[in-house]
Amino acid sequence: MPRTTQLEPQVTRVLAPNPSGMTLDGTNTYLVGEPGRGEVAIVDPGPDDVRHLAAVEETLRALDARCVAVLVTHHHGDHAEAAEPWGTRFGATVAAADRRVTGPHGRLLEAGEKLAVAGLVLDVVPTPGHTADHLAFRLPSGAVLVGDHVLGRGTSVVTHPEGDVVAYLESLRRVHALGPSALYCGHGPELTEDPAAVLDFYLAHRAWREEQLLAALADGAGTVDQVVSVVYAAVPRTLWPAAAQSTRATVDKLVDEGRVRPRPDGSFVLA
Ligand SMILES: [Zn+2]
Questions:
Q1: Where would you tag: which of 76, 151, 158, 193 has the fewest CB atoms within 10 A of its CB?
Q2: pTM over cut 0.85
Q3: What gap in Å lies between CA 6 and CA 10, rounded to an integer?
Q4: Is 78 a catalytic residue?
């Protein structure tokens, strides 16, 4: 992926230099604002890294704009670490759904609010699941900044114990119902071809993983590690810790539904 890309007149993406198995090419930082207004909001500043800051400041100069707000989709460090330092540096308000991100003086965003910033009105869309505090931001163009709710490649993780599979599925349907024109992801390339089909795939993928989990239990697996080694056999082992989190979150859902029963030794069986 190129370091800096203009996705539409109101949106420029700057890729942070923090690639990994979990962050794909690195964290995507978005500069969002009405052209000619001289202002942008930064969405997901990413890691507090001097090279990334330099790239973002160069982009601000190219746009002839200053940063008036720092918005954050969720509290994970690869999205939020630079929020407070950059908020201070730019004299910009830091806004998110979690005090750990905003600090004591930032702005707590509320689900469903309309946020007027940098000449645009953004819809604040609650998207819990990956984390409890996760938000997406819908632009007037119809594109949605989705953070880690949806990734540009592969699939996202429902973290454990914070994440929630039922909430995650509801959030996928909520974004689907917006009829997004594009999904601008926290990691990986933009999804512009058929965003609704991507969201349908995510819903189907979660259902498929749940079926595989139940099949593994029926075949005698009884722990998360045993399930992961069967269900994620085709996935690189470096991703198994993340797969274990999604598996634990799915087990919790199945226990809540009475389909799986926990045993005193920490293993579990089909109910
Ligand atoms: Zn995350």
A1: 193
A2: yes
A3: 8
A4: yes
